[in-house]
Amino acid sequence: MVHKGETVGIVGESGCGKSVTALSVLRLIPDPGKIVGGHIFFKDREVTRMSAEELREFRGNDVAMIFQDPMTSLNPVLRIGFQIKEAMVAHERFDNNAAEERVVPMLKKVRIPAPKDRAKNYPHQFSGGMRQRAMIAMGLSNEPGLLIADEPTTALDVTVQAQIIELLRDLNREMGTAVVLITHNLAVVASLCTRVIVMYAGRIVEQGPTRQIFYNPQHPYTWSLLQSIPRIDSTQHDKLLTISGLPPDLSNPPPGCLFHPRCRFRVDRCSKQEPPLEEVGPGQDARCWVLMKNALAGAESTS
Amino acid sequence: MSAEGAQVSQAPAYEMALVRVEDVVKHFPIGAGLFGGQVVRAVDGVSFEVRSGETLGLVGESGCGKSTLGRVIAQLQPATSGHVFFKDTDLVSLHGEKLRRMRQQMQMIFQDPYASLNPRMTVGDIIGEPLQNFGISRGKEREKRIHEVMRICGLNPNFIRRYPHEFSGGQRQRIGIARALVLNPTFIVADEPISALDVSIQAQIVNLLEDLQDRFKLTYLFIAHDLSVVRHLSDRVAVMYLGKIVEVADSKEIYLNPLHPYTKALLSSIPIPDPDLEAKREPILLKGEIPSPVNPPTGCRFHTRCPIAQFPKCSEEEPALEDKTPGHRAACHFAGQL
Predict the structure, then answer these.
(1) Residue B291 near chain A (CB below 8 Å)
(2) Helix, strand, coil: what percent of chain B each, to 5?
(3) Domain shared by A215 and A106, yes or no
(4) B59: contact with A, CB 8 A cutoff
């Protein structure tokens, strides 16, 4: 669930299903993939039951999406300004003239310098960071309620990443657009999001308010992930904690909890029965039989 | 006598240098116009040393020339000009058999564990290839050595006849590391060895690299754009911007007290996985992106994006990389003022 104007981070490793989840929201799953169960609602309308016509209306108007590599999402032979205008005209929200007039302000909104001249440029004349800004301008041009950003900064340098994060934060505040940020970078989530969803092997293993997830994670996967990343502000040199093994092969998943083969806190039950996603704190849910509060208490009492 | 004594006390720093890079330049010509094409100034006059037994982190954004510099140091590409000394032998002046013999002592680990392993060779052949190239050991003895490095790198020796596609990304990087290790080198250039790996696998490789260094007294040049990992692994850090080194210092010093405005902005751009700290932090946002190395800015190359640049000094005079405090070098007219 994403609330109005919220910033939610979906984190997980490659292949954990975070992008597929986001694509499902827009019903963009490529063949032969299929949504085989479950429902997706947007403002009380069921996306999973929309007709092709309704879907067209819904995509772009209500929900926009930006991707990791902006170059592959832009048409190389059309001017940036034209492509942004096209996105608006296609949804019939603005007529040709109104759309034309909105292009430069949109580019300005995403902090592209000299937007009037830049609107006439082709994608190859833009740097990586500017292309991503242009994509964000295009996505927001129809004033959607939700922007899904799938690894929007992964292909960018850190100084440019900082600019884009700042931009998303500002736009979220200015326009009230809810943002779902899909990333493998926990630090980016800490910086931008108010709520976090942690995915592993196609399942949500933990979700909750950002502070709780970072300071009081209950799922061993979340906990291990946080312990395994070096921090720029650490003052002492500790060995990094490692998560042994690999994420499971999803065509042949392990029985029970999908994380149990790599979990250092597993008990017998973990390999037999998959735990449900249950409330573990205010607004925080985790999918684990053990939970970190018990695991760490146990470790303390034995040592 | 006292003068001599003073010299002796200074000597170790110099002697400790395993690799010394002096004014290395690497230009790539692009296009071939009638009057000569343009050149990409990938590395444009760089000097530093890598001390024996240390890890020197080389960081910078994409296109800053860090990988090219790594390849020039490892002699995979010839320098346009300048010198690379390895244990006081100038590698740039060596050719043929003499250079080949020196290469035995310096190996490279690459970023992409998919592209850097030949898919048609078995793991045993890949790891054993350097032994074959240098005519070291054969038959049973060679296989024993391959088994040994596989075990050291956390690979199951029973997999010696498998092919790279049968391994995961992390395991493939272990194969790349085993290949670099098989000749018992003293110096390893690691070019972004973990950036292609998943978050939960990165820590495994970082720890492996640390263990190997302790065990075999290795010296690393660790090239990366991820400053958090560089901080974790490195004793000293060199920061590159557009073909130049702008700052070099001890790892702790550079993170606590960066003197160059670029280093400072770079460090402040890196998010910390801690929501409360993040809420308090104000990153120094740089304008624009890294300019083209074909036509770098005049004077200080950073002046077009620098928040404290003063004109015309910064756009006309190129600052030298010099000691600002002992052991802490920076190339900035206004070092420490941001």
Answers:
(1) no
(2) 40, 20, 40
(3) no
(4) no
Domain edge (last residue) among A137, A159, A193: A193
- Cβ atoms B114, B173 nearer than 8 A: no
Distance from CA of A124 to the nearest CA of B (A): 14
Q: How many CB atoms lie within 10 A of CB B148?
A: 14
Interface A–B counts its CB contacts (< 8 A) at 127
Regarding whether A201 and A189 lie in a shared domain, the answer is no
> Does B199 contact A225 at a Cβ distance shorter than 8 Å?
yes
Nearest chain A residue to B274, by CA: A190
Task: Indicate the number of domains in chain A.
Answer: 2
Are the Cβ atoms of A190 and B286 closer than 8 angstroms?
Answer: no
Both A45 and A86 in a single domain? yes
CATH number at residue A177: 3.40.50.300
Q: Would residue A1 count as lying in a domain?
A: no
Question: Contact B210/A231, CB-based, under 8 Å?
Answer: no
* Residue A188 touches chain B, beta carbons under 8 Å: yes
Chain B CB within 8 Å of residue A83 CB: no
| Average per-residue pLDDT for chain A | 90
DSSP string, A73-120: HS-TTS-HHHHHHHHHHHTTSS-HHHHHHHHHHHHHHTT-SSHHHHTT
Contact A93, A56 (CB under 8 A): no
For A113, nearest residue in chain B (alpha carbons): B288
Neighbours of A158 (CB within 10 A): 22
**Domain of A281, in residue numbers:** 197-302
Residue A152 sits in the same domain as residue A34: yes
* Contact (CB<8Å) A158/B227: yes
**Residue at which a domain ends, from A143, A177, A193:** A193
Question: pLDDT tens for residues A123-182?
Answer: 998 888 889 999 999 999 988 999 999 999 888 888 889 999 999 999 999 999 999 999
pTM score: 0.87
Are residue A163 and residue A291 in the same domain, yes or no?
A: no
* Residue among A231, A235, A242 minimizing CB distance to B228: A231
CA dihedral B97, B103, B109, B113 (to 10 degrees): 20
